[in-house]
Amino acid sequence: MSGILGKKIGMTRLIQDDGQVIPLTVIECQPNTVVQVKTVEKDGYPAVVLGFDAVHKPTKNRKFRFLREFRIENTDSLKIGDQVNVDGFAVGDRAKVTGTSKGKGFQGVVRRHHFAGGPASHGSHMKREPGSIGARARPGKVHKGKRMAGHMGLERVTEMKEVVYVDMEKNLIGLKGAVPGGNGTLVIIKHFSA
Q1: What are 38-70's pLDDT values in tens digits?
Q2: Are the beta carbons of 89 and 175 closer than 8 angstroms?
Q3: Beta pairing partners, 172
Q4: Per-residue pLDDT at 24
Q5: Percent of the chain scored above 90 by pLDDT?
Q6: Residue 25 in contact with residue 10, Cβ under 8 Å?
Q7: Which one of 5, 12, 115, 176 has the fewest CB atoms closer than 10 angstroms to its CB?
Q8: Peptide bond preceding 139: is omega within 30 degrees of 0, i.e. cis?
Q9: What's the N-to-C CA distance of the chain in angstroms?
């Protein structure tokens, strides 16, 4: 299986036998259910749709809170209703982890874009200001993409992480370092093959 859906639990550390301390993020990946199997003949490409986090009051059309599609090479071994577990991952694997970053609200250019800001002394009023945003008559407008203050965070972020811990019984995966998003948010983990 090329990937799995999970929920971010939080961060901890893993102390190895040689005394090295590794920071890791724990992801709880309860068994994902195969909701749909796509084939080349029917859909034009092979893929599988996984459902995660069953709703408390399921309806005819909505049984899971999250549905995500994963491209796979062969769909013969999967059928609707099958369970996908963390046993597809092993310690040392590299994974592409996708999550929604924490929202920071409206932020200025110093925090949002790491601007240096203006002078901090000698009577300056430009300490955290953005500075000039363009010329006057020509071009007579502000160019698209100009970095300014605005809403920060709450974006889809994908990072490369290493699997350093797998617990089959508790359905847990430990990823080295921090993972985008707050605790309890959806995380998509995909196998990475260079």
Answers
A1: 999 999 999 999 999 999 998 988 999 999 999
A2: no
A3: 28, 167
A4: 96
A5: 90
A6: yes
A7: 12
A8: yes
A9: 16
Local structure of residue 126 (DSSP, 8 states): -
Q: Residue 1 has what pLDDT?
A: 66
CATH number of the structural domain 1-56+63-103+158-194: 2.40.30.10
Q: Closest by alpha carbon to 4, among 75, 102, 98?
A: 98
- The pTM score is 0.88
Condensed to tens digits (0 to 9), the pLDDT of residues 26-43 reads 999 999 999 999 999 999
Whole-angstrom distance, CA of residue 173 vs CA of residue 165: 6
According to CATH, where is 2.40.30.10 located in the chain? Answer: 1-56+63-103+158-194
74 class by beta-carbon count within 10 Å (0-12 exposed, 13-18 middle, 19+ buried): exposed
How many residues make up the chain in this entry? Answer: 194
